Amino acid sequence: MLTIYHNPRCSKSRQTLELIQQNSTKELTVVEYLKQPLTQDEITKILALLACSPKEMMRTKEAEFKEQGLANASDEQLINAMVTTPKLVERPIVTDGNKAIIGRPPENVLALC
């Protein structure tokens, strides 16, 4: 089973979803994380599957990142910022439960299909 953390307003997220639908027979769950914000626990689990730092999972060019002064924040502060400001979560993220991949470029996720 695959899960995509998806923002339908994002072209890369839409392209990634389409690639999965065209190339995978696995069951797919779509989580619109702006409507269903991720919890601290969910973000921590995704970070472990991505094997990356919180900053690598964030949209650091968003105004909210600068407004919240996150450039030198701790990992805990960054995770909390993603919980309270879901727009900061990089998109799309696809996971199969054992591994996760950020779909930038969208073709990255084909490894999970």
Question: How does this structure look, described?
Answer:
The model has no long low-confidence stretch (mean pLDDT 97). The protein has one domain: Glutaredoxin (3-Layer(aba) Sandwich), CATH 3.40.30.10. The chain is globular, with a radius of gyration of 13 Å. It is α+β, with helices and mostly antiparallel strands and 113 residues long. 35% of the residues lie in helices and 14% in strands. The termini are close together. Helix 1 links the parallel strand 1 and strand 2. The chain has a four-stranded mixed β-sheet, sandwiched between helices. It contains four helices and four strands.
Keywords:
single chain; 113 residues; alpha+beta; Glutaredoxin; 4-stranded mixed beta sheet; 4 strands; 35% helix; 14% strand
Gap between N and C termini: 9 Å
The total beta strand count reads 4
- CATH T-level fold name: Glutaredoxin
Could you spell the SSE succession in H and E letters?
A: EHEHHHEE
Unreliably modeled segments: none
- CATH class descriptor name: Alpha Beta
> In the CATH hierarchy, what is the architecture at level 2?
3-Layer(aba) Sandwich
Q: What share of residues is helical? A: 25-40%
Approximate strand percentage: 5-15%
Question: Which class best fits the helix and strand makeup?
Answer: alpha+beta
- Total number of distinct structural domains: 1
Strands ordered across the widest β-sheet: 2-1-3-4
Number of helices: 4
Q: Kindly state the mean pLDDT as a whole number?
A: 97
Oligomer: single chain
Fourth CATH level, the homologous superfamily: Glutaredoxin
Q: What composes the largest sheet?
A: 4 strands, mixed
